[in-house]
Amino acid sequence: MNLSVFRQTLPILFGYLPLGTAFGVLFATQLDYAWWVAPLMGVVIYAGAGQILAVSLLAANAGLVEVFVAMFVLNARHLFYGLSLLGQFRGAGLRKLYLIFGLTDETYSLLTSRPRYQDRRHEQEIDFRITGFNQCYWVIGCALGALLGDNVVFDSTGIEYALVALFIVLTIEQLKALGDSVPMWIGAAAAGIAMLLLPPAHQLIGAIAIVTVALLVQYRRIRTSQAGKEARHV
Q1: Residue 234 belongs to domain spanning
Q2: Model pTM?
Q3: 3-state secondary structure labels for all residues of 77-142
Q4: What is d(CA 130, CA 137) in angstroms, rounded to the nearest whole number?
Q5: If pLDDT is split at 50, 70 and 90, which confidence band does 40 have?
Q6: Does 110 score more than 80 pLDDT?
Q7: Whether residue 90 is found in the same domain as residue 146
Q8: What is the dihedral of CA 186, 187, 192, 198, to 10 degrees?
């Protein structure tokens, strides 16, 4: 099972290792903390953008309350799509707590695009392992970057493309799994509208809000159409 999970998480591995390393280097060069605090953040916080933001705020001597509020706002997007997995995680016992904690954008995409079978308990075990493997990749990257940060010259030019490439791969996998390109085009349109109408600081939340409303409208239309067809058959 672990070999199968490893193969499924390879795209995440190639995205998380360089990005985690970049975070570790940033941590080591910006903050005067022991190197092991960087992977510890990967264990207890596990939020890429959130951890990078935390480093910037701590380097500016921001208070813990300010750091907490900023990270909550940054990661509020998880509230939108996390709800869709409540049924999938139902009955997982204590593992459900970790599945919720370890839900990142990339893990969500992997959990919702992979083939699933009738044995719910077995599927939840695979979900649990996928989530754990992904966090391990991130923590290893954080540790490598923090250890090497003060000893190597790290040129991060272009590294931001690693995450873009990862999302492209995951989008293609989602498209193959769903067989429906409408959500992808709705998402692209929502992102474009947000970029045109909103300032950069609010574009992500704005795009999520737009695509959520659009998908709810589409879902309502599909349900109404299906109900009409059923009524005609009766």
Answers
A1: 180-234
A2: 0.70
A3: CHHHHHHHHHHHHCCCCCHHHHHHHCCCHHHHHHHHHCCCCCCHHHHHHHHHHHHHHHHHHHHHHH
A4: 11
A5: very high
A6: yes
A7: yes
A8: 110
